Amino acid sequence: MNIKHLTRYAAVYFAGILSAGAVSAAPIFGPQGEFSALFYKLEWKPGSSCRKPLRPYTSDSYAMDSYRDDGMRYLKCVKEAAGSDIDYASQVVADGYEKAVNDFLKEVKQGY
Which residues, if any, are the signal sequence (predicted)? Predict the structure, then answer.
């Protein structure tokens, strides 16, 4: 396979990944949640901006309604943070992929 075919193959392959919708614009401020790794297992937790509501001390209707509303806001916050971090991670992987392909193609073009 010559350099022309290799370059064309890489361009078509990368365009296919982008058109599949796997990558979107990365958030400007980076991840919203917190990533951690323990024994090769990557875990994610919502960031400190999402505050889990405390259970009410009483069972009156006002306390339960307030807890339910706070819970809905918490779940919405977690969903938005997760979506933002999925977009961010996808963009980071796509950028790394593009850099690896470009670095390799540049090396191939330079020859031996």
Answer: 1-25
What stretches of 20-60 show up as alpha helix (H) in DSSP?
Answer: none
Q: Taking Cα atoms as reference points, which of 46, 48, 42 lies closest to residue 75?
A: 46
The single-letter code of the amino acid at 14 is: F
Side-chain-side CA neighbours of 40 within 13 Å: the count stands at 0
| Token pair recorded at residue 76 | 């919405």
pTM (predicted TM-score) = 0.60
Q: What is the largest CA-CA distance in the chain?
A: 78
pLDDT in tens, 30-56: 777 877 787 878 888 888 889 999 999
Band the pLDDT of 2: cuts 50, 70, 90: very low
Distance, in Å, from the CA atom of 82 to the CA atom of 86, rounded to the nearest integer, reads 6
Q: How far is Cα 22 from Cα 45, in angstroms, rounded to an integer?
A: 22
pLDDT in tens, 64-105: 999 999 999 999 999 999 998 899 889 999 999 999 999 999
